[in-house]
Na+-dependent transporter, SNF family
Amino acid sequence: MSTNTEAWGSRVGLVLAMAGNAVGFGNFLRFPVQAVQNGGGAFIIPYLVSFLVLGIPLLMIEWASGRFGGQFGHHSTPFIMGSMDKRWIWKYVGVFGIFSNIAIAAYYCYIESWTISYIFHSLFGTFNGMDQHEVAGFFSNYLDVTTSTTGIPYEALIFFVLCLALNTWILSRGLSGGVEKVAKIGVPMLIIFGIFLAYRGITLKAGHEGAINNGTVGLNFLWTPDYSSLANPKVWLAAAGQIFFTLSVGMGSIQCYASYLKKRDDIALNAMSAGWMNEFVEIVLGSAVIIPISIGYLGIDRVVELTGIGGLGLGFRTMPFLFEQWGPVLSAIAGVSFFGLLFFAGITSSLAMGTPGMGFLMDEFNWSRPKAAFAFGTVVLLLGLPTIFFFNEGVFDEYDYWAGTVSLVVFALLEAILFSWVFGLKKGWREITEGADIKIPLIYRFIIKYITPVVLILVFTGALIRPVNDDWSNLNPRKWEFHNESIIGQLQHKGVGPNKTWFAGAFYAEAD
Ligand code: PHE
Ligand code: NA
């Protein structure tokens, strides 16, 4: 039995930690890009449907599984799943729920470290007076570790190590003493920054400071429903992929956080609060910052073209230049708000990626929390080095494809089967409703048992096997091919360069 008897400090803290886990780069960088690339308003219907039939059921499954396993002192998916069925296979399936977190952390923490650096550069006015090309070039130089933007050699590496040290330190302070405290500061801060930027975005006026469109042009582009692409499977796959990534389902981190609950604590209302908070931040704030501002200055066509090179491209290559149009003081404030928002969104997610592996080491080997935190930081550093030094070679994409896409869907499918069919939905439903502070519509019994697994199978097959040239009217399966490209970034091959995922474009293309 483990000596790991930690618990959450308060209900508000738990919900904010779970919301912080979910809210991340997915909301601000990935969502707008996915939406634009999938035709703006055409994306939103499949997205909302995916939220209802995949997102919400998986949230309930993961919260319930986590709290269930936690009763037996388990805080990582191999043992949480092992407590739901004794067959050895589930322990091995559960290993996914540790490794995908660590592998995602390897590239996620790298992006997080860019936000720290960009906060300083915005504050100190590095971008002042640079033209659009120079701002874009700055990012390329930054990523090329051996060159320096500031005279500090290996700047990108230094910020990466700093960022990991910060994560390690917070994790070593514990759940209520570290993670929960950061969430209580970080989530409100990012919402305040987000509201400020969204206000700037929406009230942007054509003719002011060089803007060519009102802020509302971008919003209309996103929110005018377009039913024509509803029959397009690519749009559905992209929407399902976004729901997975943004809610952090299929990763093992929600189960881990939920395993620190007590047997009779509510999960139904807590899960819905955290899940809907993520959706608010994504749909309201995530769509009101990058898109209206960039379309305001650059126009729809140019932004569609730029999103072809990935969300990071727009965020790090283009936004600092657009903020410059607001004059030196406001641009510093906007830059710090934007990268500060990204930083808080990022760190509350990377902390969530650390906890499953640490829970495992603490439960099974009786490691102390600081020792486990240090192990996490070290492993992420080692795994992260290839992304830094071989960014060009697509190591980033490899991580994102295997850890950030394939493994999530496989894991989610298996855990949905375990929950409804092996553990049994009767018991499962009892777990979900035990201690519940809200009544969950009964239709969810049916959805969890049948709809969710079937849709997951469809998404998985669709992600791996697709028709040649994506011609879905070709129904001869022998003309289909195995597809080594993530759900996450499939539409990006329309864009510039050999980018496979949403990350890749940050590097390949020159935005000038
Ligand atoms: N959901 C986070 C986002 O939207 C990403 C994440 C992945 C968080 C894995 C935790 C674990 O950016
Ligand atoms: Na998210």
